[in-house]
Design a protein that fits this description.
Length: about 375
């Protein structure tokens, strides 16, 4: 372990050892890049370990690799959480364990317990301020994820609510009458587990995410969640309030008042749960990117900053036009694209990445995704 203020110099530093960081690191290896490191503030898979205990993957794992198709939740060719764990919908803890094993198997050079606090660009290279001192690198892959950066702001009083990303276990929540603000995957997940424990739940959303309006699970609820909502007990305890934006939450004593846009008022004695999504870690490096109208970083065709060459984004915050890469099976398609771009800039031919193309894990033509199902 380096002492404080030691200056290392790498060809590439990957920030974050989650699904994106571990996956893209393995792609760097395949591209023949050796002088790189993955810096991780906690441990491999830390965000998954912090999911509420009951929360499971909505994307199913199935060991299809022998047929030339990767398990939907694999981060690397030849791996399959479904095969390894014999579990179709792993919990966060189970997936974190899988990720740790993958990182060790591929000998990914992860340095844990190193927090990256700032990235600056100086004389064509990058300097990372970290909890153990500064580190220099020619390229940075920002893969610090979203989960540890929950959305805090939403409406007056949102700070009185409890973000679903801070809940260790739904079963342990005290109270019988819950209000959930936000009805997409995390909101439905919370409602399902609370109702399972016989709690009354009201779920509010500014739109109607429970209607199946798109075949893209980044926009519409997954079949896993829709199936859960068809449990015969679900609607005995859960009430849905579509098209009902919440405009404020206040508290007097132990009583929370939740007010909707039309003036309707709802009460609960339990802090409302806020399933409002994530700000995302890219806010830490927002000054190094041009931003799109939706606030996400603007990227070139290699997922590189259009402002500061050599800085790449990997993971669920990647956006191209209307395409949202917020699932593993989506953002892993970009690992080889990023690795290839970095290898090229280092003068390597990256021939090993051709395997990624063969496995359909190399999406360099962005026009081919985003098609709607027709039936
Ligand atoms: C409840 C829930 C359910 C989900 N279900 C699915 C699903 O079924 N299928 C699916 O494909 N996706 C699912 N997702 C989305 C998926 O989990 C995320 O897209 C995925 O975790 C993103 O991986 P990541 O590596 O980008 O981020 P993370 O897993 O968050 O990894 C980022 C890593 O970076 C580290 N880090 C953060 N900041 C720093 C820093 N400043 N310095 C150093 N290290 C840092 C963190 O400790 C963490 O280990 C779900 C997400 C949630 C919240």
């Amino acid at each position: 372990m380096n002492s404080k203020n030691t200056l290392d110099t790498y060809d590439v530093v990957v920030v974050g050892a989650g699904a994106a960081g571990v996956g893209v690191a393995i792609a760097l290896q395949s591209a023949g890049i050796e002088n790189f490191v993955v810096l991780e503030r906690h441990h491999v898979g830390a965000s998954f370990n912090a999911w509420p205990a009951e929360t499971r993957f909505i994307t199913p794992s199935f060991p299809t690799n022998s047929f030339g198709m990767l398990d939907l939740n694999s981060v690397a060719i030849g791996t399959s959480p479904g095969f390894m764990m014999e579990i179709e919908h792993p919990t966060g803890e189970e997936f974190a364990r899988h990720l740790g094993i993958v990182a060790r198997y591929f000998e990914v050079p992860v340095r844990e317990q190193i927090d990256v606090t700032r990235v600056t660009r100086e004389e064509g290279a990058y300097r990372l301020q970290t909890s153990i001192g500064d580190i220099n690198t020619k390229h940075v892959i920002w893969a610090a994820g979203e989960f540890q950066y929950p959305q805090r702001l939403g409406f007056p009083g949102s700070e009185l609510c409890r973000h679903t990303a801070t809940i260790p276990r739904y079963e342990d929540l005290e109270g019988d009458d819950f209000i959930i603000i936000g009805g997409y995957e995390s909101g439905v997940d919370a409602a399902y587990h609370l109702a399972y424990h016989d709690k009354r739940v009201r779920v509010f959303d500014s739109t109607c995410p429970w209607e199946n309006t798109s075949s893209d699970p980044s926009i519409a609820l997954s079949p896993f969640s829709l199936e859960r909502m068809r449990e015969d007990w679900f609607f005995e305890l859960v009430e849905l309030y579509p098209n009902t934006p919440i405009t404020s939450v206040t508290v007097t004593g132990n009583r929370y008042t939740v007010t909707a846009w039309d003036g309707a008022v709802f009460y609960t004695d339990v802090p409302p749960l806020w399933a409002g999504g994530f700000e995302g870690s890219h806010m830490l490096v927002a000054n190094l990117f041009e931003l799109r109208d939706d606030g996400f970083p603007l990227l070139n065709a290699n997922d590189e900053s259009t402002l500061t060459p050599g800085l790449f984004l990997c993971g669920p915050s990647v956006r191209h036009d209307q395409h949202v890469f917020c699932f593993i099976y989506k953002f892993r398609q970009r690992f080889a694209v990023v690795a290839k771009a970095i290898a090229s800039s280092l003068g390597l031919d990256a021939i090993g990445l051709e395997t990624y193309r063969a496995w359909g894990m190399y999406l360099d033509d962005l026009s081919c995704c985003g098609e709607e199902c027709v039936c």
